[in-house]
Design brief:
This protein is of the alpha/beta class and about 325 residues long. The protein is built from twelve helices and eleven strands.
Length: about 325
């Protein structure tokens, strides 16, 4: 059966509140959790951005859930530091962590003041980072001089099994490239034909037989109008093309561009409905495409209602649907 997980949005909630929400999600029946590792939110309306690695230690101690984290090594983080952070969590909480690695966005990574490279160079840098991280997880002493520099690094505390490295992709060309090195693919929700194109690209690029994960951005609330307004207020930047989002340098720029997004356009990146049955059907359709895990992100601020209703009406429906399909 496909695992349905809860997305813990550091951009929208304080770390303490987010900890309470992920505990509530576990109690409601969500089978996993995921968070992103960003330095800034995507909008002034969101208003938060806690440090994911500190929070993960607390959240994994406070729940029994498996967790994923999206990270961009190479500029804001040295890859050896990410290898050490993930290894420590994986040693304390065996088989409960996966790490999704991507090339990042200017708004988060360029706080170091270093030059922001073009996409092709960021891809090459990420490939080097993945090689360094995997070598460190194998217990090797690593010296590497390329787009990143590592000098005689070794991890002294290692888990029995290294975390899975998932490749994050938003376009078919990136998905194909990710297939050549990642253990799995994670992408975001879009119309079925586009999802199938992403899957096909990943498989042709070397991902045949590897797991598929999806982050599903939804907006559920008391009625469709409220759900749409909440999606527009909190997450309208999802409509902007990846090439634009990657190169913006300030939160204010996301808000300025988002002001041109019509509320009716938000459907392009967010599944909006106040009907739990529609959400259950959407999840079932995605699961039918072969996704091992679907991380549900309710992009508005009504988290308690979403968690409770999905726990009562959506997750049991999916479980029953999965049993029928066996």
């Amino acid at each position: 059966m496909t695992r349905i997980s809860y997305h813990a949005s550091h951009e929208q909630f304080s770390p303490g509140e987010l900890l309470r929400l992920v505990q509530r999600a576990e109690q409601a029946g969500f089978a996993g959790a995921m968070s992103s590792d960003h330095f800034k939110p995507w909008s002034e309306q969101q208003g938060h951005s806690g440090f994911a690695w500190s929070w993960l230690g607390a959240a994994m101690q406070a729940t029994a859930l498996p967790f994923g984290v999206v990270n961009a090594p190479g500029q804001r983080y040295h890859p050896a530091i990410i290898a050490q952070a993930a290894a420590t969590l994986a040693e304390m909480f065996p088989d409960r962590l996966w790490v999704a690695l991507g090339t990042g966005q200017y708004v988060n990574e360029a706080i170091t003041g270093e030059r922001w490279p073009p996409k092709s160079e960021r891809n090459a840098r990420l490939a080097e980072c993945v090689d360094v991280i995997r070598a460190l997880w194998r217990g090797e002493v690593v010296t590497h001089r390329g787009r990143v520099v590592v000098e005689e690094a070794r991890l002294w505390s290692l888990p029995a099994r290294a975390p899975r490295i998932v490749g994050a992709a938003l376009t078919p060309p990136t998905a194909a490239w990710v297939g050549s090195w990642a253990d799995a693919l994670i992408t975001t929700w879009r119309p079925r034909a586009q999802l199938e194109e992403m899957i096909e690209a990943f498989r042709h690029g070397g991902g045949e037989g590897k797991p598929l994960l999806l982050k599903l951005q939804i907006s559920y609330d008391v009625d469709d109008r409220t759900a749409r307004r909440g999606a527009w207020e909190q997450w309208r930047s999802t409509v902007l093309p990846p090439a634009v989002l990657e190169d913006l340098r300030a939160v204010a720029q996301f808000d300025a561009l988002g002001a041109f997004v019509d509320p009716d356009e938000v459907d392009q990146g967010v599944f909006i409905s106040a009907d739990p049955v529609r959400h259950a059907d959407c999840l079932a359709e995605i699961a039918g495409l072969g996704f091992e895990e679907i991380v549900v992100h309710n992009v508005n601020r009504s988290q308690e209602r979403f968690i409770d209703v999905f726990g009562e009406r959506v997750l049991p429906h999916l479980a029953a649907h999965g049993e029928r399909d066996r």
